[in-house]
């Protein structure tokens, strides 16, 4: 049985990417690094579907969120943060930390954000210049309709900053078509990389705003980083090894093609949801907002102990590592990460193991056809060519 790491980040790193990182270190102020960063930046623009600058910071995803806040928020200025879960709350907390007068639009966890609510707040508060919102809320398995929200924001001439840490590269988010000003992603989610880099796209209006305003900042200065990267360098020492990996993972992604990557994630997510329901479990998210990268499932019988036992059985006996709940959902949900290096067969194996575990903890008496439900939902695509990676390195 192969080990499957299926928490919503970090995600598995394919053998090709591991090997691409296993190379001697280079000088980060020299021609070899210049070539590396140029290829990485071009690939990131391709994946972000943008002509905007995409900056590469050595930080986790939260660093990218903090960068967005520092460069766009003015202390004391009224700013809208839209939250549908733990990561939306984190974004808003960063806004408070940098002194914004935060208006928080909150939804019950499991729900998605409504574009008309955002529009209403912007109409009531003409002084709001920037809206911060999560695309894919990893704590609840909810994917917001950024196209609808961005349309309202842009129609009113405001800026929009999006946390796409757990969606970009896996779920379609065409940055230029939607006119998204700042978009943040993180290496250890859909990018098939270890933790260590955040990727931040910055529009021209966002650069203009940060030139005249913004909170105190030093490490994460958009304009400073842009100027360094234009010369093939970075302000500080970059995460060189992650960038060797990024170059390779971007090559893998180009071989597969963006639309096929999105389709693979949609298919697997649909299959997993069908299997979960066949297993007599309930999905946590509002069906209008199901995420294609992370599925949150209500704990069996809403029994915290049983939930814990299920996760432990999967990990210790069935080589499948899933995540528990965050904040007040701790014990009340478990979460399945299905992003990055995952193919359609992996998804079927996962639901088979989940079924086994539910039998072992006594939630169901015997097999109920999880794999069949998965296959039916995924359809003919199951047999199709199915990157990401086929061969996987043994897990230590
Ligand atoms: C993982 C994640 C982050 C950032 O997490 P880090 O641990 O700082 O990398 C931010 N937002 C969302 C939606 C995430 O899934």
Explain what you see.
The strands form four sheets. A seven-stranded mixed β-sheet has the order 2-10-9-8-5-3-4, with helices on both faces. A two-stranded parallel sheet has the order 1-12. The protein has helices spanning 15-21, 31-48, 61-72, 86-97, 115-124, 146-155, 204-212, 222-230, 240-256, 258-278, 304-318, 344-360, 370-378; strands spanning 4-5, 53-57, 78-83, 101-106, 130-134, 136-137, 142-143, 159-163, 182-186, 198-202, 294-298, 320-321, 333-337. 42% of the residues lie in helices and 14% in strands. α1 (15-21) packs antiparallel against α9, α2 (31-48) crosses α9 (240-256) and α10 (258-278) packs antiparallel against α13. The two termini are 14 Å apart. The radius of gyration is 21 Å and the shape is globular. The protein has 396 residues and is α/β, with parallel strands linked by helices. β6 (136-137) and β7 form a beta hairpin. The protein has two domains: 4-9 and 257-378, Alpha-Beta Complex (Aspartate Aminotransferase, domain 1), CATH 3.90.1150; 15-254, 3-Layer(aba) Sandwich (Aspartate Aminotransferase, domain 2). It has 13 helices and 13 strands. The model is unreliable at 391-396 (pLDDT under 50). Bound molecules: pyridoxal-5'-phosphate (PLP). Pyridoxal-5'-phosphate (PLP) binds at residues 9, 60-62, 87, 134, 136, 138, 163, 165-166, 186.
């Amino acid at each position: 049985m192969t080990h499957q790491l299926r928490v919503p980040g970090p995600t598995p790193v394919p053998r090709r990417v591991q090997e691409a990182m296993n190379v001697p270190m280079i000088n980060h102020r020299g021609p070899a690094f210049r070539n590396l960063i140029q290829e990485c930046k071009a690939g990131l623009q391709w994946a972000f579907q943008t002509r905007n600058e995409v900056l590469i910071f050595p930080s986790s995803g939260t660093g990218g969120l903090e960068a967005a806040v520092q460069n766009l928020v003015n202390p004391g200025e009224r700013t809208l943060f839209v939250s549908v879960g733990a990561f939306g709350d984190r974004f808003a907390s960063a806004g408070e930390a940098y002194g914004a007068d935060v208006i928080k639009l909150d939804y019950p966890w499991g729900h998605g954000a409504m574009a008309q609510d955002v529009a209403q707040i912007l109409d009531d508060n003409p002084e709001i210049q920037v809206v911060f919102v999560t695309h894919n809320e990893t704590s609840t398995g909810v994917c917001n309709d950024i196209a609808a929200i961005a349309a309202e924001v842009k129609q009113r001439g405001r800026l929009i900053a999006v946390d796409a840490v757990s969606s970009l590269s896996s779920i379609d988010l065409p940055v230029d078509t939607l006119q998204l000003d700042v978009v943040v992603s993180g290496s250890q989610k859909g990018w098939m990389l270890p933790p260590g880099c955040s990727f931040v796209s910055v529009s021209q209006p966002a650069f203009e705003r940060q030139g005249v305003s913004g909170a105190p900042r030093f490490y994460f200065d958009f304009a400073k980083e842009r100027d360094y990267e234009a010369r093939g360098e970075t302000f500080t020492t970059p995460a060189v090894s992650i960038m060797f990996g990024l170059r390779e993972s971007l090559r893998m992604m180009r071989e597969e093609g963006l639309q096929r990557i999105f389709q693979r994630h949609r298919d697997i997510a649909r299959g997993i949801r069908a299997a979960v329901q066949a297993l007599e479990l309930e999905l946590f998210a509002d069906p209008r907002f199901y995420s294609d990268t992370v599925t949150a499932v209500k704990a069996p019988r809403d029994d915290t102990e049983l939930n814990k036992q299920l996760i432990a059985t999967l990990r210790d006996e069935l080589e499948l590592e899933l995540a528990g709940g965050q904040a007040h959902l701790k014990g009340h949900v478990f979460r399945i990460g299905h992003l990055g290096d995952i193919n359609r067969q992996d998804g079927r194996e996962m639901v088979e193991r989940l079924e086994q575990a539910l039998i072992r903890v006594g939630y169901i008496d015997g097999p109920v056809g999880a794999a069949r439900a998965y296959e039916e939902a995924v359809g003919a695509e199951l047999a199709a060519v199915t990157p990401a990676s086929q061969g996987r390195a043994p897990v230590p």
